Amino acid sequence: MSSASNHDHQALQGAWEQTALEDSGVLNPVDEHSAPGAITTISGDRFKVVTPGGEVLLAGSFTLDPTTTPKSITWVDSMGEDAGKQLPASYQLEGDHFVFIAADEGMPRPTRFSTGPGQTMRTFVRRG
After folding, report:
1. Neighbours of 98 (CB within 10 A)
2. Reported pTM
3. 12 CB-side CA count, 13 A
4. pLDDT in tens, 3-58
5. Domain extents for the chain?
6. Is residue 125 within 8 Å of residue 15, measured between CB atoms?
7. What single string gives the DSSP state of each residue in the chain?
8. What pLDDT is recorded for position 58?
9. In the prediction, which pLDDT does 33 show?
10. Pairing relationship of beta strands 56-65 and 71-77 according to DSSP bridges
């Protein structure tokens, strides 16, 4: 793992709370993968989204490539409708703020942080 990749990988570890969602150009639509107060925990190369009541909404793994512009992340859900699919995404990680924009499998990786059809952008803030 390169030093840049390792730095971002380390910086992503921990708990994150989603603060905004944009899907196919719509701000904050109904979303089965998040809920008020749900926490996304990143541990190693795995992630899990859990409600305050303990329900797991989503889980899976990811790989980073910070050498691209913008930086790349590929999500692979282990449950739900996208389970097993490779979802191409771009991310920004600055301090306690993390944003990614992902496209459906087979679509080009998004390079602008504004959604079009088949794209989802999630914004997070670090929690403790």
Report:
1. 23
2. 0.93
3. 26
4. 877 899 999 999 999 999 999 999 999 888 888 899 999 999 999 999 999 999 99
5. 3-126
6. no
7. --HHHHHHHHHH-EEEEEEEEEETTEES---TT--TT-EEEEETTEEEEE-TTS-EEEEEEEEEETTSSSEEEEEEESSSTTTT-EEEEEEEEETTEEEEEEE-TTSPPP-SSS--TTEEEEEEEE--
8. 96
9. 86
10. antiparallel
Which amino acid belongs to residue 9?
H
Contact predicate 119/102, CB 8 Å: yes
Amino acid at 61: S
Which two structure tokens, joined as six digits, stand for 85? 């699919």
- Contacts for 6 with CB less than 8 Å, ≥ 6 apart: none
Residue at token pair 């089965």: 32
Residue with tokens 């499998």: 105
Residue type, 14: G
If you classify domain 3-126 with CATH, what class do you get?
mainly beta
